[in-house]
Write a structure and sequence with these properties.
Blueprint lengths: L1 E7 L4 E7 L4 E9 L7 E6 L2 E6 L5 H14 L6 E8 L10 E2 L2 H9 L7 H15 L4 E6 L9 H4 L5 H7 L8 H15 L7 E7 L3 E7 L2 E5 L22 H9 L3 H10 L2 H5 L7 H9 L3 H25 L4 E5 H6 L1 H10 L9 H6 L6 E2 L8 E3 L4 H17 L1
Parallel strand pairs: 1-6, 6-8, 9-12, 12-14
Antiparallel strand pairs: 1-2, 2-3, 3-4, 4-5, 7-8, 9-10, 10-11, 13-14
The structure holds adenosine-5'-diphosphate (ADP).
Length: 397
């Protein structure tokens, strides 16, 4: 039996069909530029990749291509569950949920909290239910893992009614990844997750840090939206909340324009003077002496180390640091510079191990006697597939 994992964005769908028992991915791929003339689906299987154009295609068109491919391969009948990544579950979802009318309504109620993501997730779920009507559909939320944060952590010091009437609080994101790498780190350390206090850093285009105590999130750097916290590819992370009005007055920008600039033109892109948001390219430019690139990388590292050190307060005792995401898994430079700043927590780098933990299986990158630091490759598809299968077992057991 196999689990189909779907991650529906506003104009794209990432998908993967996993056989959890055999530990293999049968098929994966990406539908892009949905709704546009150049819309296409890229499929990958057995080491090969190929494209299929679906001009002006919708989610339904992309799923039709996927379903046809599954049937061609005789895999269609094996699909027993579809796991959907859903960005915002608000306070309603502390756990994944088998999708029914009530669950769809609750996801819809969270649209104001994630106006770009949740509508896309909903449209994707509805199209997938129509294409794969015989199987169970499960929603796995980015926010659910962080619902265990205590109130002193998740409340903002704003008027009480903003929280009670509008849900203004910190939610946190990347929960699936933080949960997965925490579990994986415990396995690698050979210790029960229940006993461990971990600081996990998910560093991709979006980036966040979490404090994970006994497998439960007790703090994270993202908040009401995925804009808070670390410096990211194009997102600012923390800024002074007075900045919006300041820029509105100084530059005549609307609230929407300021928010767009903070989401799309800030972060590494902003600090590098517009050079780019890609860490690998910025590291190369920094090595060649580009001042903006140097500043962007150094500021990224500083804010990351500061957030990670702050998580020690949430945990009391820190047992290990965990790096993941495209940057965490591949940038030996960022990890080295971050650990150097985290000497304050008792972390010391093993430069050789750090250099080796690139594009590989990850592993320990700290020196003997140091606070352990590890690289763990995240696998959100696998985590969603496992979660969906667990929900199904819970329901059918
Ligand atoms: P997303 O959040 O979109 O899933 P990823 O987790 O793939 O993104 O992370 C993308 C980031 O990882 C980019 O900034 C990219 O430059 C960075 N990255 C990937 N490989 C390397 C590398 N070898 N060295 C430095 N950065 C890298």
């Amino acid at each position: 039996m196999a689990t189909l994992v779907l991650n529906c964005g506003s104009s794209s769908v990432k998908f993967a069909l996993l056989d959890l028992a055999a530990g293999i991915t049968h098929l994966s791929g990406l539908a892009e530029r949905l709704g546009a003339a150049e819309a296409s689906v890229t499929l990958r299987a057995g080491g090969e990749a190929w494209d299929q154009p679906i001009p002006g295609g919708s989610y339904a068109d992309a799923f039709a291509v996927l379903a046809a491919e599954l049937d061609t391969r005789g895999l269609g009948k094996d699909v027993e569950a579809v796991g959907h990544r859903v960005v915002h579950g608000g306070e309603h979802f502390q756990a994944p949920a088998l999708i029914d009318g009530e669950v769809l309504a609750a996801i819809r109620a969270c649209v104001p909290l994630a106006p770009l993501h949740n509508p896309a997730n909903l449209a994707g779920i509805e199209a997938a239910q129509a294409t794969f009507p015989q199987v169970a559909h499960v929603a796995v939320f980015d926010t659910a893992f962080h619902q265990t944060m205590p109130e002193v952590v998740y409340r903002y010091a704003v008027p009480d009614a903003w929280y009670t009437q509008h849900g203004v609080r910190r939610y946190g994101f990347h929960g699936t990844s933080h949960a997965y790498v925490a579990e994986e780190a415990a396995r690698r350390l050979g210790r029960p997750l229940a006993e461990l206090n971990l600081i996990t850093a998910h560093l991709g285009n979006g980036a966040s840090v979490a404090a994970v105590q006994g497998g439960r999130s007790v703090d994270t750097s993202m908040g009401l939206t995925p804009l808070e916290g670390l410096i990211m590819g194009t997102r600012s992370g923390d800024v002074d909340p007075g900045l919006h009005e300041f820029m509105a007055r100084q530059a005549g920008l609307s609230l929407t324009q300021v928010t767009a600039a903070l989401n799309q033109a800030s972060g590494l892109r902003g600090l590098s003077g517009g050079l780019g948001s890609d860490m690998r390219e910025l590291e190369q430019a920094a090595a060649q002496g580009h001042a903006g690139a140097r500043l962007a990388v150094a500021a990224f590292v500083y804010r990351l180390a500061k957030q990670m050190a702050g998580m020690a307060v949430a945990l009391g005792r820190v047992d290990a640091l965990v790096f993941t995401g495209g940057i965490g898994e591949n940038s030996a430079t960022v990890r080295a510079a971050t650990l150097e700043r985290l000497g304050v927590l008792g972390a010391r780098l093993d430069p050789q191990a750090n250099a080796l933990a690139v594009r590989g299986q990850g592993g320990l990158i700290s020196a003997p006697g140091s606070l352990p630091a590890l690289v763990v490759n995240t696998n959100e598809e696998l985590a969603i597939a496992r979660t969906a299968a667990q929900v199904l077992q819970g329901v059918t057991a």
